[in-house]
Amino acid sequence: METGMEFVNVSYTWPGGKGLHAVNLAVAPGDFVMIAGPSGSGKSTLLRLAARLEEPESGVIRFQGTPLAEYAPPLLRRRIGFVQQTPVVAEGSVRDNLLLPFGFAVNRGEAKPDDEALRGWLERLALAGVRLEDDARALSVGQRQRLCIIRSLLLRPALLLMDEPTSALDRESRGIVERMAEELNAAGMTVLMVSHSEYCPVAVHRCLTVRDGRVEEAA
């Protein structure tokens, strides 16, 4: 199987001795993978390892056939989008936050979206009432989360990691984000999503369960 991302005997230990143990996982390009499991089981750690925000103690993680450690971090951030459970916004306007990745040297050759395109994304994520000039830190938690999702998508990553992206959203907004994830996957983007909700995308390819430090295919 051609792999978008591959974990080979990957282990990671948290303080106290718990962690992930000998994880072997291959995700094909274009897969939509749902990840479930009890709180504290290691779901978020799995995504953080995939984004190289944590380093494995043993084993290797490959992205598009190349070990993560061989990628320059800025290039990896462009190819792998990561939406955390807790949204992080910088001081400044909504526009400033959305365009933040384009200020990095590695992305300066990328076409910067204009205001019309940015407003289109805001409307798509049910943020039509949010202006580009608004203070990003004054937005609600749910609005900031959707802002972070847009920011992750503007560089068109090949792989999107989503760590409970809808946990702070109401039912309507949650549905919008979930449908958008399905649309992106249908267009070819690989998606790994951690979720505690009962949401299951129509086109889901695989469901994984993380329990006691092990990653298993859900029954």
UniProtKB/TrEMBL annotation:
GO terms for molecular function: ATP binding; ATP hydrolysis activity. Gene3D superfamilies: P-loop containing nucleotide triphosphate hydrolases (3.40.50.300). It comes from the Bacteria. It holds the Pfam family ABC_tran. InterPro entries: AAA+_ATPase (IPR003593), ABC_transporter-like_ATP-bd (IPR003439), ABC_transporter-like_CS (IPR017871), P-loop_NTPase (IPR027417). It comes from Desulfovibrio psychrotolerans. Residues 5-219 form the ABC transporter domain. The keyword ATP-binding applies. This is ABC transporter ATP-binding protein. Keywords: ATP-binding, Nucleotide-binding, Transport.
